[in-house]
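name: query_chain
kind: protein
chains: 1
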Amino acid sequence: MAEEEDLIVDIVIKSPLWEGKQDFLANVLSTAAVEENKRGAISLLLGDDAIMSQLNKDFRGKQGPTNVLSFAGPRVEPGFLGDIALAAETIVEEAQFQGKSFDNHAAHLAVHGFLHLLGYDHQNEADAQRMEARERAILSAMGIEDPYA
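structure:
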């Protein structure tokens, strides 16, 4: 468990591809919390494609893995913002295809998932632009280039 700037990040690692990345991702999420002026706790599952495929099927009714899933916390548990799950192999593949580093792409997806926990969405163009602007600003605060460039 990592704690920074009033955000508690409980991390579960289920893929060896994530070894050594937990502090980096806890810092990414802590920065996002500071930038969004949010306090609380989240759970971060650093999984693989098999785990993400099962979660995607169980909770979204979709087949196959996805890069990130977010589940907002129950409103009955004050301070718990929710769960974020990341898929190592999918993120590796996407990063290679997009010419990005694994760390930068994983950071982007962690921030993306975090913003979903806060109610951001991208179901329409205006909401997508708002969410992407926040992603850019948060990542820029960490010295990470624009993920949409």
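note: The chain has a mean pLDDT of 93.
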